[in-house]
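Operator note (shift B, R.M.): manual run for Methionyl-tRNA formyltransferase requested after the automated queue skipped it. Running by hand, logging everything below so the morning shift can see what happened. Input copied straight from the record, untouched. If output looks odd, do not overwrite the archive copy; leave it for review.
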Amino acid sequence: MRVLFAGTPEVALPTLEALIASEHDVVGVLTRADARKGRGRALHPSPVAAAAREAGLDLRTPTTLKGEAAADVRAWVHGLGADVAVVVAYGRLIPADLLDVPGHGWLNLHFSLLPAWRGAAPVQRAIIAGEEITGACVFRLEEGLDTGPVYGRITEAIGAGDTSGDLLERLARAGAPLVLDVLHSVEEGSARPEPQDDALATLAPMLSTADGEVRWDDPALTVDRRIRGVSPAPGAHTTYLGARFRLGPVTPVPDVTDLLPGQVRATKREVLVGTGGCAVRLGLVAPAGRSWMPADAWARGARPEAGTVLGTPPPANDDGEGMN
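Run finished. Output pasted below as returned.
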């Protein structure tokens, strides 16, 4: 089949690569426009843009698919003659009047077991919620948010130490052959899409920086899940002496229960922090303006005082004014 592909980040690459290597013809690629990154704010292509250019594919990077500003790219979509469009984390809404332009519509690889976790952050929200099983499915886009009929699905266990980055990588790789299986069934006419039960839907809105702030009075398992769910992005954080203090995944320590929420106990070998339940052992940390390092190495340099509590306002100066 003639396939239009739409995707942007690293997790979209396994499906794009599988399509390129398959019997299907990738006739065009849509991705987000180049973005400014780093200290120099230089423009960088998305991972999908870089892969499409390397493969010599017909690439478009519109800022929108709506209205007169998108007239050229909309005409391009119409003119491709695609039989189907495959979407993986594209990051832009497909206008309603384009949804039926490919004969078989736009098929989206979504990283949840729909109707669970409809939205932009399904993997992250599943980990934060403490789910043990998730998966990926291919469904047809329609005007509602992730509401279309499902053509196929796979399941995946969520490991006790999985971050959202770990789980997304596995689902992205497992999802690529699922997409090819669905395209095969669509092409031969054996596909049997199943409607979703809206009554079972849960929502997974995009995460903000605020979602990464650790609440130390939560139970240890909740702290653990939140940190893993927001890692690597938007990232977990707290404060140390009033400055932002980034946190990597932690390990609950069930036999340590004498620390107050946020209270630090540092030894030569480990750094423990109290929660609303047992303590957690810090892994990698990144103090303000510093790179990631093991928590015990940070503690040997910072020497946090006994009774130090993470997540509290900065101490007052001797003259009663706050720290600069």
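Quick read of the result: The CA atoms of residues 268 and 296 lie 6 Å apart. DSSP finds seven helices and 17 strands in the chain.
Leaving this for review. - R.M.
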